[in-house]
Design goal:
This protein is mainly alpha-helical and 81 residues long. It has one domain (15-71). 49% of the residues lie in helices and 0% in strands. It has helices at 19-34, 46-64, 69-73. It starts with 18 loop residues before the first helix and ends in an 8-residue tail after the last helix. The relative contact order is 0.13.
Length: 81
């Protein structure tokens, strides 16, 4: 009998790995700092696009923090050193 593998719906334990949370918090900061000057928080807005790229970078770095240093510095499989 094979085991069914599933992906959890629960949010990640570390907030740095939760893209949606980071985006939401970023928009809150923009709303607070931008006041009446910045009113468009949709995905087509260039500022939101930059925020989403930043959130992606943070989630990627947070994911990599769980790796051991030797795994981060190891060559890719099949790559000669």
């Amino acid at each position: 009998m094979t085991e069914n593998l599933t992906i959890s719906n629960a949010p990640p334990a570390h907030p740095g790995m939760n893209f949606a949370l980071l985006r939401q918090e970023g928009i809150k900061h923009i709303e607070r700092l931008g006041g009446k000057l910045w009113t468009d928080y949709n995905t087509h807005d260039p500022g939101i696009t930059i925020l989403e790229q930043l959130c992606y970078a943070i989630t990627d770095l947070s994911y990599r923090l769980d790796f051991e240093m030797k795994d981060l510095l190891a060559p890719a499989p099949g790559e000669k050193t």
